[in-house]
Amino acid sequence: MTIPVPAAAYTPPAQLSSVEAITEGLASVGYIASRRIATAVMMAAHLQKPVLVEGQAGVGKTELAISTATMLGLPLIRMQCYEGLDESKALYEWKYGKQLLYTQILKDRMGEQLGDAKSMAEAMDRLHSMGDLFFSEPFLEPRPLLKALTQVGGAVLLIDEIDKSDEAFEAFLLEILSAFQVSVPELGVIKATTPPIVFLTSNNVRDLGDALKRRCLHLYIPLPTAELEERIVASRVPDVDAKLNRELVAFVQSLRGLDLRKSPSISETVDWARVLLLLHAHALDPELVRETLNVLLKFEQDILGVDPQIGELLRPQARPAGK
Amino acid sequence: MQRTMENFIRALRAQDIRVSPAEAIDAHRAAEAVGYADRELFRDALVTTLAKTAHEAQTFDSVFETFFRRDEFTKTPEEDADKALADELPEGDGQGDLAHMLLEHDDAALAQAMEAAAERAGVSEIRLSSQRRLLTRRMLDEMGLGGLEQRIANAGRREDEKGKQLAERLAKVREALFAEAGRYVERQHDLYAAESGRKLREDVLSNQKLTAIDEHELATMQRLVRRMAKNLASKYSRHIRRAKRGQLDVRRTIRKSLGHGGLPFDLIWKSKTIDRPSIAVMCDVSGSVAQAAHFLLLFLYSLNEVVERLDAFAFSNRLVPVGDILNDEAVADAIAMVIKRIGMRSTDYGLALEDFCALELAKIDNKTTVIILGDGRTNYVNPRLDLMRAISERARAVIWLNPEPESLWTRGDSEMERYKRFCTVAKTCSTLAELERIIEDVLRTYMPR
Q1: How do residues A100-137 score in pLDDT, each as one tens digit?
Q2: Residue B374 belongs to a domain with what CATH number?
Q3: Taking the mean position of all CA atoms in its chain, how far away is CA A190?
Q4: Do A43 and B30 touch (CB under 8 A)?
Q5: Rounded distance, CA A290 to CA A309, Å?
Q6: CA A217, CA B362: separation in Å to the nearest integer?
Q7: Is residue B208 in a domain?
Q8: Selected residues 79-138 of chain A with any CB under 8 Å from a CB in chain B
Q9: What are φ and ψ of residue A81, in 5° steps?
Q10: Does the predicted model carry a pTM greater than 0.95?
Q11: What is the pLDDT of residues A75-86, one digit of tens each?
Q12: Residues B435 and B341 in one domain
């Protein structure tokens, strides 16, 4: 087992020096982070380890990576995982067309070069040195992972939905995640100049291997509390007024208490707030909720199940609002 | 702090959170980066390095709370009076004198002393609940209980009023100290030992004969089986391979041919085949396996939860598909319902195989694994070996798990010896541990990869 030792020269950027700074920084780009989220980002920068972000769809896993990149002013390099993703799509590929073309163009030139070789061995040697030319950086097509490693000044690398890729690919990621380096057989080891901040997201489609989990910091983003969710909605949809915000969040929170196939997450709440805004709604009433329920619930049976309860679900929130 | 951290990690491990040495090192580094001053920050930093799932994060939080909680020594209204009394004490051995600390209500010093004493007494090594008293006593001795007792006795012997008062108060605070020490050890027990008891029970259970497992252990059993089934299912998911015919993948072929100077030696095809393994299970619930039937069904139920393409059947004589029941009902109801509807009649494997072939044979192909759970006791009716042969010819593998030991397979009405010939694997599985091992072997060897 090897334990990666952080490069001594690297110090995390000032925006990542404390939890408060991170919370503020993320808030300034519109991402309201809980303490735990901010701490995870901070640890990622300090320990130089990737963060594995888990949580339901729509709780802001991908958004966290995007916001971090915006906050730090770093380029975001995103890699969407899917079944069958392999290293030629994730890491690098040779520009085989260019290689072929150049061999053809340089054919005569090669003949000349080789023609005056005195012996077979000498011709061989020259040929070898030429062969290496064709497997050099100009013929290398960098894919997201290599791009993230070679980016000058660092980058934020987002490996989205890692659980959708297959196990072989997960194993392939290990070298990059633990040492921020990759081995390209023809070129040798390529090491990151500035280690990127890496986020991996997972929806738990399958269990990830222990080896991968061990190399990552783990962050689970739960569904937010009402108070946090109100702040998120306020930050994402600034035009929505406070009263409506409170009502709609309370309604969504009560929906989550029901037994649904897919309970609404933050992104649905935000979408709903936008829809309500477009409809110029100032308060929730059963009719309005019924008409817009399909924004919150994505399964027919969920909508049918909730429909008769709408009135009841709206009622309890009248109390806190009336206080 | 290192020792504390080590103990904390040990407590986490005791609660089933796996912490590898590398993670422990990460935790140390994390702690160094954030410092110990801000408790919340410290906790959040540790949780990212030590917990690896949402569930583990929850467990972590509760362990953290218990581990780093220090009860305040209970405040009493007599505090001022006690402080005055402290002057009455004859000078003891100075620093760390227990009686002084108690009377002066120096909580920080007391907590520290208790911590140190606990370490000397080895309280964190607690394994069993029966050790609690002994360890409490040992810890108190380490704190200097002997000296305290001495002082109480001395004060009691004094003639004046103050002496009597002092003895009384000292006895009172000693009681408080006892209570506090008891709570401390209790907490340590919760941290390090509570889980090991559960683990012990589970170990015993998984090695117990299936026929001897009690009804009330069903819940524990269920948890074990479900965990097992989940492990199995994650290994047994679909797999993608590149096909060996179809449309040529020009790009890849050319790329690969570069190694041979442009000559396409290796052809690569575009299409991929996805192996979607399926399982058909038939489970014997007749009178002869009555004792094990509960368990076999539990296994079937869990398997049904985690395997995507599973056809489940149960039989005594006629074979009935039970997929719907397993899908719709809660586990206890489903098992009861299957047993009530189908179970406890006399066995007829011939009839069951006939039904199975009629319902399922057409669906069986070289990606299907057929699992038969049962004892192979046929009540001397025709075992229909021909059907068994037909199934084994079509299926990828036929696996027979029999709760009876192999020595009984030739006795009485058991046809196991004859059925065995058509099985890829036929094994005894009479305990949960055996079942797990077999299934794992089977999946590794006979499942499409």
Answers
A1: 788 788 877 777 777 777 888 888 887 777 767 777 77
A2: 3.40.50.410
A3: 23
A4: yes
A5: 10
A6: 49
A7: no
A8: 83-84, 88, 93-94, 96, 99-100
A9: -90, 150
A10: no
A11: 999 999 887 787
A12: yes
